[in-house]
Design a protein that fits this description.
Layout: E1 3-7, H1 10-21, E2 28-30, E3 35-37, E4 42-44, H2 47-54, E5 58-60, H3 67-74, E6 80-84, H4 92-95, E7 102-106, H5 118-124, E8 129-136, E9 146-153, H6 160-183, H7 216-225, E10 232-236, E11 239-249, E12 261-264, E13 267-271, E14 276-284, E15 290-291, H8 292-298
Parallel strand pairs: 1-2, 1-6, 2-5, 6-7
Antiparallel strand pairs: 3-4, 7-8, 8-9, 10-11, 11-14, 12-13, 13-14, 14-15
Length: 308
């Protein structure tokens, strides 16, 4: 079987490694181009490229999915594409190339949460369950019929990074179970109920700014959903203060202005629109990630500050 894998971030890399370790090694991997990262803007390969090279797999990084790319892939005569968070929409001309179509790994229980941010949206909405779907791609986003799904609970303090990793591992397991049957035409597909479809939006950096007027549990879910990117942040002394870990405490202090930082039982808390948020791990602009205790050692004036 000639398998082509298309993916870019860590989510895709986990799935790629799962396929390889279970005897489904792609003969070529397609991923996004290297991108500048860090303060020095050094070009860095995407995680999928790193994994592919680890196993000696040929890597293709097209700027565009145009006719030139189509001709290049067509020469390989692929049987199947597997797509996991590639980052580009595949045009019909590309979808039509593999003999057995294109299978996509999507981290939600489709038709719920189609689009680019299903994991973050599930956490933001306070869902207690999500899952991974394997679907046959068509020319609409996350619209094709389902081959298999598996649901998992969302733990209360589970963040985006942790949940994505869990769903990626499930995706790899489902593919290992499904691909041999699919290649032998031994799987029946189930059309999605399109009337029940919901959609997610592209997350932007500014979405991470904390609105302290919101309830503490809403802000807590935002912190979990936006870890590690775009992160949840506020402003302190004219600098960005990122909050990576926190806890909700069921206490309302009506005498304090919203956004006020105060001490409660020797712990640092912030007054929100309803209840309070205990800070545990933060990062001030230009500094390293640190515990709130270590942060306080260098920022004695933090208590009494009104965050905005």
């Amino acid at each position: 079987m000639k398998l082509v894998f298309l993916g870019t971030p860590e989510f895709g890399a986990i799935i790629l490694e799962g396929l390889i370790k279970n005897g489904l090694k792609p003969f070529v991997v397609v991923t996004e181009t290297d991108k500048p990262t860090g303060r020095n803007k050094v070009l860095a390969p995407p995680p999928v490229k790193i994994t592919a090279r680890k196993y000696g797999i040929e890597v293709i990084q097209p700027e565009k999915l145009d006719s030139s790319f189509g001709s290049q892939i067509l020469r390989y005569e692929p049987d199947l594409f597997v797509v996991a968070a590639y980052g580009k929409i595949l045009p019909k001309s590309i979808l039509d190339i593999p003999k057995k179509g294109c299978l996509n790994v999507h981290p939600s229980l489709l038709p719920k949460y189609r689009g680019p941010s299903p994991v973050q949206t599930a956490i933001l909405n306070g869902d207690t369950e999500t899952g991974t779907s394997i679907m046959l791609m068509d020319n609409q986003v996350d619209h094709g019929p389902i081959l298999i799904q598996k649901s998992v609970p969302i733990q209360k303090e589970e963040n985006n990074l942790e949940l994505q990793e869990k769903l990626a591992k499930i995706g790899a397991e489902l593919l290992v179970e499904t691909i041999p049957k699919w290649m032998q035409s031994q799987i029946s597909i189930q059309q999605q109920d399109h009337e029940k479809a919901t959609y997610t939006q592209m997350i932007k950096k500014e979405d991470g700014r904390i609105d302290w007027k919101k309830p503490a549990d809403t802000i807590f879910r935002q912190i979990c959903a936006f870890y590690p990117w775009p992160s949840s942040f506020t402003m302190f002394s004219g600098k960005i203060l990122k909050i990576f870990r926190a806890k909700v405490i069921m206490q309302q202090t009506n005498t304090m202005e919203i956004g006020t930082v105060f001490l409660i039982n020797n712990q640092v808390a912030v007054q929100t629109g309803y209840n309070c948020l205990l800070l545990e791990e933060v990062q001030l602009e230009g500094k390293s990630v640190t515990t709130i205790k270590d942060f306080m050692n260098g920022n004695k004036n933090f208590i009494g500050t009104i965050l905005n």
